[in-house]
């Protein structure tokens, strides 16, 4: 049975806004962001702590209406940790059914298997410097498809060396695109760029474009 069949689904919504996609291989695309409230993790460098609580409960159909009002093709569902809300699966399916190009930003701590296959899943692998390495769900690696992406956000050189080991051990670059990103304001981006080139790592360097454009502004 379709997960979207229950149109009575309600979700706790932190914010919804239009911006330029600042992360993933979709960087630069005008996108509607649907940010769901709540996260069971506490990455020490999290830039979205305001989404841990608050927001408003909304019906799925209302969220679809809000998304439509922006008149954009791309939608990114994020949080908080979007998969922590049961209704997220129905939201993702309904967005795909409505014809949007949909991406999901997820921590990698929850099961990505039931996500609609039309969704591009951007899955974090939490490095030790996040304080949440223990939450990585190993089974998720086996579920990755070519259209998905793995993102590792690095706080320091120890995190980089950890990422390099993970990429080799799990042949991550053969499964899907692998993105390495510095923790904003913590790891000097040029240092990470140098390490990647030095080691000929088969990854994509990523900077959060929205922070270049708008610093830490909320709703951007
Ligand atoms: C706010 S999280 C929401 C989605 C999900 N909870 C997750 O962690 O993937 C969105 C993305 O922002 C990244 N992020 C959060 N804080 C960051 C920071 N200070 N510097 C760089 N990336 C950061 C996360 O690693 C994640 O890839
Ligand atoms: N512009 C912009 N792009 C983003 N891509 C992923 C984001 C997120 O918070 O998950 C994000 C965000 O917060 N802003
Ligand atoms: S999992 Fe995502 S939202 Fe949750 S604390 Fe980590 S970066 Fe922030
Ligand atoms: Mg963000």
TrEMBL record:
Q: Where on this chain does substrate bind? A: 20-22, 35, 78
GO molecular function annotations of the record:
4 iron, 4 sulfur cluster binding; carbon-nitrogen lyase activity; magnesium ion binding; S-adenosyl-L-methionine binding
**BP GO annotations:** tRNA queuosine(34) biosynthetic process
Cofactor(s) listed in the protein's UniProt record: Mg(2+); [4Fe-4S] cluster; S-adenosyl-L-methionine
Q: Which reaction does it catalyse?
A: 6-carboxy-5,6,7,8-tetrahydropterin + H(+) = 7-carboxy-7-carbaguanine + NH4(+)
**Cofactor binding note from Swiss-Prot or TrEMBL:** Binds 1 [4Fe-4S] cluster. The cluster is coordinated with 3 cysteines and an exchangeable S-adenosyl-L-methionine. Binds 1 S-adenosyl-L-methionine per subunit.
Q: Which pathway does UniProt place it in?
A: Purine metabolism; 7-cyano-7-deazaguanine biosynthesis
Query: Any keyword Membrane?
Result: no
Enzyme Commission number(s): 4.3.99.3
Residues given in the record as [4Fe-4S] cluster binding sites: 39, 43, 46
Residues bound to Mg(2+) are 48
Residues that hold S-adenosyl-L-methionine according to the record: 45-47, 80
Q: In its keyword annotation, does this UniProt entry include Disulfide bond?
A: no
**Alphabetically ordered keywords of this record:** 4Fe-4S, Iron, Iron-sulfur, Lyase, Magnesium, Metal-binding, Queuosine biosynthesis, S-adenosyl-L-methionine
Give residue ranges for domain Radical SAM core.
26-216
Record text on subunit structure and interactions: Homodimer.
What family does this belong to?
Answer: Belongs to the radical SAM superfamily. 7-carboxy-7-deazaguanine synthase family.
Its biological function? Catalyzes the complex heterocyclic radical-mediated conversion of 6-carboxy-5,6,7,8-tetrahydropterin (CPH4) to 7-carboxy-7-deazaguanine (CDG), a step common to the biosynthetic pathways of all 7-deazapurine-containing compounds.
Q: Which HAMAP family match?
A: QueE
Q: What name does the UniProt record give this protein?
A: 7-carboxy-7-deazaguanine synthase
Q: What is the lineage of its organism?
A: Bacteria, Pseudomonadati, Pseudomonadota, Betaproteobacteria, Rhodocyclales
Gene name linked to the record: queE
């Amino acid at each position: 049975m379709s997960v979207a069949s229950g149109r009575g689904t309600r979700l706790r919504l932190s914010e919804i806004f239009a911006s330029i996609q600042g992360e993933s291989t979709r960087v630069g695309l005008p996108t509607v962001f649907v940010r769901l409230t709540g996260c069971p993790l506490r990455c020490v460098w999290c830039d979205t702590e305001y989404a841990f609580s608050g927001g408003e409960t909304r019906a799925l159909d209302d969220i679809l209406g809000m998304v439509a009002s922006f008149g954009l093709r791309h939608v990114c569902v994020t949080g908080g940790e979007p998969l922590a809300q049961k209704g997220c699966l129905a939201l993702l399916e309904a967005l795909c059914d409505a014809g949007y190009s949909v991406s999901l930003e997820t921590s990698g701590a929850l099961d990505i298997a039931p996500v609609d296959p039309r969704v591009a899943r951007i899955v974090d692998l939490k490095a030790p410097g996040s304080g949440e390495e223990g939450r990585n769900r190993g089974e998720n690696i086996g579920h990755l498809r070519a259209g998905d992406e793995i993102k590792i956000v690095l706080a320091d050189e120890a995190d980089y060396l950890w990422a390099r080991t993970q990429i080799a051990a799990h042949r991550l670059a053969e499964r899907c695109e692998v993105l390495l990103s510095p923790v904003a304001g913590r790891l000097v981006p040029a240092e990470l760029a140098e390490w990647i080139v030095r080691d000929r790592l088969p990854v994509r360097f990523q900077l959060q474009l929205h922070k270049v454009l708008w610093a830490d502004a909320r709703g951007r």
